[in-house]
Amino acid sequence: MIEKAATARTARLDAIFAALADPTRRAIIERLSRGEARVTEVAEPFPMSLNAVSKHIRVLEASGVVERHRKGRDHILSINTSSLDEVDGWIARTRRYWEGRLDAMEGLLRELKKDDKRGPKDRKHGPR
After folding, report:
1. Which residue, of 13, 23, 103, 108, is most buried by count of CB atoms within 10 Å of its CB?
2. DSSP labels for 61-109?
3. Distance from first CA to last CA of the chain, Å, rounded?
4. What phi and psi, each to the nearest 5 degrees, are found at residue 77?
5. What whole-number distance in Å separates Cα of residue 2 and Cα of residue 108?
6. pTM recorded for the entire structure
7. What are 81-92's pLDDT values in tens digits?
């Protein structure tokens, strides 16, 4: 059961990172970070067809980063912040891991530096 949850979480993160890998989709997210907008408003600044922008939006929707709802005839887009929170959590866990590893390496380097300053006679483990 835990393995299935981890696999599902990995698949969600893969979809989100793939969706955010494209500069057009990141620009759409930046626009939506200022508030929800109609699809036509989101598409307006891009030098491409509405159909092309709609394809980018569908990728963002499929990844869970963007949500769509209707108000009358208008399709309104907004950011699904919980999907970005999931990415933020992954980044925080990864950062803690690597900071721990780098701190351990820094400690080891300090110890090696101390050993070098003591000279060969003072070292705990002399040449073999």
Report:
1. 13
2. HHHTSEEEEEETTEEEEEE-HHHHHHHHHHHHHHHHHHHHHHHHHHHHH
3. 52
4. -110, 145
5. 35
6. 0.73
7. 988 898 999 999
